[in-house]
Amino acid sequence: MQKLQGIAVSPGIAIGEALVMDNEGFRIPRPYVARDAVDEELDRLQNAITAGAAEISGYREVVAKELGEKYAAIFEAHLQMLQDSKLRSELEDMIRHRHYSPEYAVSRTLRRYAQVFQRLESAHLAERAADIFDIEKRLLRHLLGRRREGIAHLTSPVLVLAHNLTPSETANLDRRFVMGFVTEIGGPGSHTAIVAEALEIPAVVGTGPFLADVSGGEMVIIDGDKGLVILQPDDATLAHYRLGVEQNRSAAVRLEALRDLPAVTADGVAVNLYGNIEFPYEVEHCIDRGAAGIGLYRTEFLYLGSEGEPTEEVHYQAYSQVVEAMGGKPVTIRTFDLGADKLPHLPPPEDERNPCLGLRSIRLALRHLTMFRTQLRAVLRASVLGDLRVMFPLISTLLELRQAKMVLADVMEDLDEHGIAYNRQMPVGMMVEVPAAVVMIDRFVEEVDFLSIGTNDLIQYTLAVDRSNKDVVGLYNPADPAVLRLISMSIEAADKKPVPITMCGQMSGNPIYTMLLLGMGLRHFSISPAAVPEIKNICRSVTTAQCREVAARAMTMENARDITNYLREELKRRLPGLGGEG
Ligand code: PEP
Ligand code: MG
């Protein structure tokens, strides 16, 4: 049994078989073989080694001819490793005596070899590990042949273990079979984390390196509440977690009873709980959990999940599906927030050393007007089907907001010319996620119909801390007093105008902040649909006067740790049994 501590990003417990995802998406189908199949399995190993060696010799010859013997020596070294008698006898031993499948034996052994190189404190030697992984892949390719099962073609439930998952890889996971995932890198605000919440599967990121220790096929537990990953758990641990799964199930059933009850505080103040979605199918999750609408539709996932740029029709279909399913409840479409870690189709900008500070989001939209206009046309066309709203992400300056609104007005004119119907009064809002926008918030409220605070980015830009970097996770804290002041200023300015203000960053779905945010005056929360019942439960259990007291006290404190501890204690006091993740 091996325990890894990472960052909890999507709650719940998953227990199942590991699938190690690497660039080639290999999957070890089964770790063990039947006793009477040993001879056959040894033959398979032999055939794979022979085929792998023939392949390498072929490459060796071509390279020797075209580039000379010096370059061909790379393959000579691979060949020697592959045909090494020590390696072979180790593999045979594992198959014969421990009944490992050849795939599992190859992967375990070569990963152990690679680890020796990875541990050496020389970057050059550590790179040699790549040669060993190369041999592992080659043998696996021959062993698995056509039985190879990639990540895109799963046939049974798995827990995905990966070094990193890009947002598009995460978006393309087969949600019928992926029951949870773990990545070695990544931080609390990474989009991988957000997609895990959308899929409603437990996830842990930022565990640090461990993939050399697993081959796939092993039993794994992902504890998405504590950020723990347990490889090959012992029986007692397994029993403990199986009980946890049962308890979670009963808690979910208890919360289900809240579905049709109103989200009001104990003193009768209405709170609006909307859902955040990334994919149209999540509308069902919102309806099932009794969400009052959709407060954030991250439309960039339409781009990430498709081969080319989505056409106007693809946009329109997605938006109309969502707005019609919500049956008159509000749906807020955020225009694409591409760039930084999410950049399909467009060429990567040259010399982009700080993607989070570079051409991302609304900046990218204003540079690629055709793409932006295509999306806006589809939004406007869908606006006649229900209560649709649009908002622009990452607004930093008034000029930027005005430009975006001008493009929208221009697209409206175009639709007018073609006699295409749309809602002329469609509310237009902006995200408040750059500190500059908060500093200028009294001006911004004059020019929008609503605001939405994106704490994921607001924290990142306020504290100058990369939301996806596990090494600075200690600084990435929603409870930082500087962040709280910015949130409070935004709510005050919105109330003064007045324009409605929502919070749609992860902070708003975390139970430990509910009282604080209610106390600051927030009445619109947009959260992952799975969090709706729990947040509703808190709202119904507290009064606004209690919350104001909590907020006032928290705002006097000087550091995030004290504030988090205080909020956790208050939550426990009011709702014993809830502790929340901080
Ligand atoms: C945010 O920044 O808080 C937000 C909701 O947007 P995203 O996480 O998509 O950047
Ligand atoms: Mg954001």
Characterization of the model:
The protein is globular and about 80 Å long. The chain is built from 23 helices and 16 strands. Strand 9, helix 10 and strand 10 (294-298) form a beta-alpha-beta unit. Helices cover 47% and strands 13% of the residues. The relative contact order is 0.10. The protein is of the alpha/beta class. Helix 1 (38-67) packs antiparallel against helix 2 (69-82), helix 12 (312-325) packs parallel to helix 14 and helix 20 crosses helix 22 (544-554). The model has no long low-confidence stretch (mean pLDDT 90). The protein binds phosphoenolpyruvate and magnesium ion (MG). Phosphoenolpyruvate (PEP) is lined by residues 194, 296, 298, 337, 433, 454-457, 504-505.
